[in-house]
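User: Here's a protein and a ligand (guanosine-5',3'-tetraphosphate). What would the complex look like?
Assistant: Let me lay out the input and then the predicted complex.
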Amino acid sequence: MNGDNEKGNQVNIQWFPGHMAKARRLLTENLSKVDAVVELLDARAISSSENPEIARILKNKPRVVVANKSDLADPAVTEAFIKEFRSRGIRLISSDSKTGSDVKAVKAAVLELMSEKLFRKKERGMRQYTVKTMVVGIPNVGKSTFINKLCGRASAVTGDRPGVTRGEQWLRVDESIVLLDTPGLLWPKFDDQRTGYCLASIGSIKDDILDRAEIASFLLLYILDNYPGVLAEKYSIDEEKLLSAEDADPDNVVLSRIGTVGFPALEAAAIKKGCIRKGGVADIDRACAMVLDDFRGGKLGRISLDRPVSGTVIPEGAGEAVSL
Ligand code: G4P
């Protein structure tokens, strides 16, 4: 991992590309131009994709939070998060921007949030007040796709790499609402190693920030722990054997289990799926690409990497929260 200060389960991943500093400046500048904010999170990693920097900059600005890519996430976990957000007084709406399901619900939620202001404007004789809204979120959560669907045409630039959306772009949904797209914003340092793995898994930080084999091993370990049967079916992995071989180091359970369970799972998947180099050894690079592509494309099923804070009941059917 390209991180320093490793200590126990904590590691600070120090990195902050120049365009992120610009994105932060833009977000701060644009805040005064808008009435409300729509913050997009990735439904597969709701806690990890909630950028603490965005929350700090937004302060008390009215905001609707969207769990996007819900088509790829575990529905029971998304539901549990909706309840957990509600208990914090925040409206979380799940959405699949690719098909457009529920994007209209987001617009309705913004207008509802602004209803008092709209009422006051009307009382003062304004015929139509257009609510100015800013769409924010970390890279690759689907901001451009969401905006395109809401506007009903391909009006914002989309891309497949983190940080592709640049500059200021106002887009009209209809006479009631306009949207301001902002570049994806990450924060300068992850205090929690697990957040880094989750963000890498969903493609919000570039694969080369962390070790790809570590990311893929983390994913396989997490799926073994939380979604039993998935890897046996997909990669013909002997799950029981892998889990029985673990020998976790109590000083760093996450990293040691990635090494003792996750990495052997990656090797096993490589061999079973024919990712083999000369001499019969596992081709780890190809196996990493396979696992990451399968996860990102939803081929391993609907998987959520985060769970709401303890105390929130996870409905039946969701994978159980465990140590990772
Ligand atoms: P960004 O502006 O936040 O950086 O994200 P963007 O809209 O560019 O979307 C990033 C990728 O996520 C795109 O895939 C997009 O299609 C996909 N995506 C966005 N919303 C959803 C969703 O709700 N569900 C699913 N399954 N995918 C979603 P891509 O492979 O990079 O591009 P494309 O080939 O699909 O266009």
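Summary: The radius of gyration is 21 Å.
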